[in-house]
Design goal:
Two copies of one chain form a homodimer. Chain A is mainly α. Chain A is built from five helices and two strands, in the order H-H-H-E-E-H-H. A two-stranded antiparallel ribbon of chain A has the order 1-2. In chain A, helix 1 packs across helix 3 and helix 2 crosses helix 3. The longest helix of chain A has 16 residues. Chain A starts with 5 loop residues before the first helix and ends in an 8-residue tail after the last helix. At the A-B interface, helix 1, helix 4 and helix 5 of A face helix 1, helix 4 and helix 5 of B. The first copy, chain A, binds a DNA duplex through helix 3.
DNA sequence: ATCATATACGACTATCTTAGTCCGAATTAA
DNA sequence: TTAATTCGGACTAAGATAGTCGTATATGAT
């Protein structure tokens, strides 16, 4: 239904929170409490953002997260690809060639669908965390 | 994951088929066979398109469907709204006011999310069946 | 009239994805 | 040593999507 996943929503709220926080380091607990997001779930999200080098993590007591990339460099496409694993408006698109689809041998809408995919992707490329601050 | 539903995909294929068909009237059977789409499922889709006055139906033997609107007037947003019931990138958006969201009492991303929603909606407004023919 | 071929429509089921939980680590400052 | 934190995988729950089934209704052809 063309909907942002909760993971991405949570990530946006968390990133905004981190960006605007007066503290250098912010814990997953703090964010999950603030927004009533299940702690374990948010923790996983932040861990993925760390792997993607969007966040930097500090382990142990007094640990937490802080930005590794600057807000204007964190694109919405990156969040979607990292957290949802993919960015494609149809199952048959995997970011590769236009001819990969073998789901419908007589599918006639490959070309326009690919065009829309590319346009959408460009659109989300232009959206960064800066737009959320 | 920001994906078009199968319903919308099927609708696009079906509409394109109807538009480019040399026959005045096309049956659901013909289309479902052509693309290996489950017949009952496609039938429901076409019925919804009929209610939306995108298609016109003819009952009984030799019945079927034909376009009621011209291809350039059938927008992708219409298909999504009709078939998926809604068009919103987040649960808290229902096309109404920006302040309807009560999911997160401290949600801080309402405004930017609403902006993106509107931009996306405009984008899909510009896409019509003409783009698929 | 009857029959075969269509659409119309609601209820149901199956499948897949997403969201959320649980458990046990490893790390580190106090 | 302890408490607070990140890390990682496996699991379960919930919800949305996809697909099925049964029946009714309309209508042209025989």
């Amino acid at each position: 239904m063309l909907r942002l996943s909760k993971k991405v929503e949570y990530a946006l709220m968390a990133l905004r929170y981190i960006v605007t926080s007066k503290d250098d380091i912010v814990t997953a607990k703090e964010i999950s409490t603030k927004f009533s997001i299940p702690h374990e779930l948010l923790a996983k999200i932040l861990q993925k953002l760390k792997k993607e080098r969007i966040l930097e993590s500090i382990k142990g007591v007094n640990g937490g997260y802080r930005l590794e990339k600057s807000p204007e460099k964190i694109k919405l496409t990156d969040l979607i690809k990292t957290l949802d694993g993919d960015f494609s408006i149809t199952e048959c698109i995997h970011g590769q060639s236009e001819d990969d689809c073998n789901m419908f041998k007589d599918c006639t809408i490959k070309t326009p669908v690919n065009k829309i995919q590319k346009e959408l992707e460009s659109f989300f490329e232009t959206k960064t965390i800066s737009d959320f601050v």
